[in-house]
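Translate structure to sequence.
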């Protein structure tokens, strides 16, 4: 075990000499490079031990090799690729793991290398770090015959305060602070040191991307970047946000970029990968790692590789990579806020759209988040918003998603151009009003199409009665009835479409009620058209012809007035032109008058039927046709008054 102390002891000796000369900068960059490389190797070794233990606990599951992680960390021993598969339980507390002695020794040696720059710089806490490492060295010991106890593995890889893993995390934070302090220059916002001349355009490309979208984080901390060189690799690290396990480390070696991304939120990790669709990035299998020191006790890691065909595409990819990082800050908070308005999958699609169009979500959060939309809803519905009713239930998913895109875009552009948040909220209100107005107009369109079909059916009945004496009367009556049946089916389809809208949005309930009443008109008229196909008309029935024809003409006029009233409603609102309101009320008045006239004509027809000598079967059909027309007029009256009450109470008085 004594040999493992050598690197730290040697570094301490060097640090005293260099410190006396006042030239710590000569040693610190190389020590920091070594420390960062050691950190990468330790993470790989600990993952290897955890994977081997998991395989020992669950031998039925396929083992992983972690070959990609080994290559990325710079560990050369390919024999370690078999370590995870070698794990087996020897007892309740002991595991046999190949090369475990070598791995344990390497971890402790690399931990000493991580502490070396802190000791050389005489940082506060360096002595405490060294003491913690010595205690762990004694507690862990060295595995013999490839046997490791559960306690040894826990001391190495668990996330508790007294584990080596926790020591490494604490030391890494201290190294990052030291790294920032000793950087020899700032290159486009990145702190850099000990880099080669060829690294400069690559760092500048990465920072060009970071700086292009960084304004979208506004005053939120994050996106600090450090760059250095370790052997043949340029290393770029970005802290993204403020979460410990939320880090991006980029290695550039030749024309190959290897990005290692860690995150406590699996969905955000998958979102990050999705930002590179179509860019030929190869992703290794995602890994989940336990760590009690991070949120939720688990974090996730993915490793992506991009091989550039030339220098230009290498720089373009690094710029794109840097430009995507701002869209990860507070991503989960934005996703939760948007989830109040659309389904989960649509939230992620919205965030992807916002990133793709360089709008992001931070402006939305900064301007008020979900409260922007709640305020807009209260404004549009003229009262307190009913919490629990999602926006997509009111507008439909496509329109809700379109509106939220508008809010994300407007917030980003507004705040970037210095517009006040109050103006952004007003724009959100106005846009949502247009969406609701548009939704109401769509329902009015459906109601108008429904009314137009009623008018067509009424016309078919009127035409059928006018053709009672023409040759081929039966053929024409059958054709009219077939057309009426087809129109009535289309009217039913429109009613069902309206009912579906009501299920999405309770504010549309009136239109469901209106078309439900209007559909009774279509049903009665379609029945009348059918009865005309059964009539055998002759001169003996002449005294019954005029009341029926007059009834049908009145129903046609009533249907036309109902359609006219619906078209006029489009232009009626509080403060609308008086002429529009007058036209609407006159149409309703004529519907009322027509219903009274049909009552009188219906009684005239009944009186004629009572004295007629026509065959009783024909009398029954004539009576049923007259009843259909009179009931259609009644339904027109009910529908027209329903529309009038809505317009007076909910539109003009609103």
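Result:
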């Amino acid at each position: 075990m004594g040999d493992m102390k050598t690197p730290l002891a040697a570094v301490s000796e060097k640090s005293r000499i260099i410190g006396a000369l006042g030239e710590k900068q000569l040693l610190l960059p190389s020590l920091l490079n070594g420390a960062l490389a050691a950190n990468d190797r330790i993470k790989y070794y600990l993952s290897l031990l955890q994977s081997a233990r998991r395989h020992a606990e669950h031998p039925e599951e396929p083992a992983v090799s972690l070959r990609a992680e080994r290559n990325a960390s710079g560990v050369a021993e390919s024999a370690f690729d078999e370590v995870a598969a070698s794990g087996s339980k020897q007892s309740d507390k002991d595991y046999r793991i190949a090369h475990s002695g070598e791995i344990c020794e390497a971890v402790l040696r690399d931990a000493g290398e991580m502490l070396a720059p802190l000791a050389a710089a005489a940082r506060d806490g360096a002595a405490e770090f060294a003491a913690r490492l010595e205690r762990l060295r004694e507690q862990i010991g060295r595995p013999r015959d490839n046997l490791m106890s559960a306690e040894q593995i826990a001391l190495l890889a668990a996330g508790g305060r007294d584990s080596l893993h926790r020591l490494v995390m604490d030391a890494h934070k201290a190294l990052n602070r030291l790294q920032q302090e000793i950087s020899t220059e700032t290159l486009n916002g990145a702190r850099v040191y000990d880099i080669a001349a060829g690294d400069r355009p690559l760092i500048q490309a990465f920072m060009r991307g970071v700086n292009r979208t960084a304004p979208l984080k506004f005053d939120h901390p994050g996106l600090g970047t450090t760059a250095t060189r370790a052997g043949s690799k340029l290393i770029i690290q970005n802290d993204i946000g403020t979460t410990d396990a939320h880090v991006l480390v980029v290695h550039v070696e030749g024309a190959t970029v290897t990005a290692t991304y860690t995150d406590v939120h699996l969905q955000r990790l998958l979102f990050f990968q999705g930002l590179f669709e179509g860019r030929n990035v190869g992703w290794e299998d995602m890994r989940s790692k336990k760590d009690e020191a991070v949120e939720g006790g688990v974090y996730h890691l993915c490793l992506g590789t991009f091989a550039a065909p030339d220098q230009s595409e290498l720089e373009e990819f690094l710029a794109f990579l840097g430009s995507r990082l701002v869209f990860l800050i507070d991503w989960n908070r934005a996703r939760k806020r948007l989830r109040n308005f659309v389904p989960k999958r649509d939230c992620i699609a919205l965030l992807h759209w916002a990133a793709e169009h360089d709008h992001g979500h931070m402006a939305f959060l900064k301007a008020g988040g979900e409260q922007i939309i709640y305020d807009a809803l209260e404004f549009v519905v003229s009262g307190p918003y009913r919490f629990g009713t999602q926006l997509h239930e009111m507008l439909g998913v496509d329109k809700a998603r379109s509106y939220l895109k508008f809010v994300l875009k407007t917030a980003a552009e507004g705040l970037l151009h210095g517009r006040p948040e109050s103006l952004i909220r007003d724009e959100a209100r106005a846009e949502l009003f247009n969406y609701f107005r548009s939704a109401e107009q769509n329902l009015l369109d459906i109601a108008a199409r429904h009314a137009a079909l009623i008018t067509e059916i009424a016309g078919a009945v009127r035409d059928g009665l006018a053709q009672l004496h023409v040759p081929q009367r039966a053929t024409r009556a059958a054709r009219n009835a077939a057309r009426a049946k087809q129109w009535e089916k289309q009217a039913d389809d429109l009613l069902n479409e309206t009912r579906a809208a009501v299920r999405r949005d309770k504010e549309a309930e009136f239109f469901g009620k209106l078309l439900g009443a209007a559909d009774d008109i279509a049903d009665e008229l379609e029945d009348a058209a059918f009865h005309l196909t059964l009539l055998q008309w002759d001169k003996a029935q002449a005294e019954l012809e005029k009341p029926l024809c007059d009834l049908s003409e009145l129903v046609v006029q009533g249907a036309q007035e109902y359609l006219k009233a619906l078209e006029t409603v489009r232009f009626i609102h509080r403060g609308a032109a008086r002429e529009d309101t007058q036209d609407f009320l006159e149409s309703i008045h004529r519907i009322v008058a027509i219903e009274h006239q049909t009552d009188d004509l219906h009684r005239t027809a009944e009186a004629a039927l009572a004295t007629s000598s026509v065959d009783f079967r024909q009398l029954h059909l004539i009576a049923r046709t007259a009843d259909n027309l009179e009931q259609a007029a009644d339904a027109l009256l009910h529908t027209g008054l329903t529309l009038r009450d809505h317009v007076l109470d909910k539109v003009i008085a609103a």
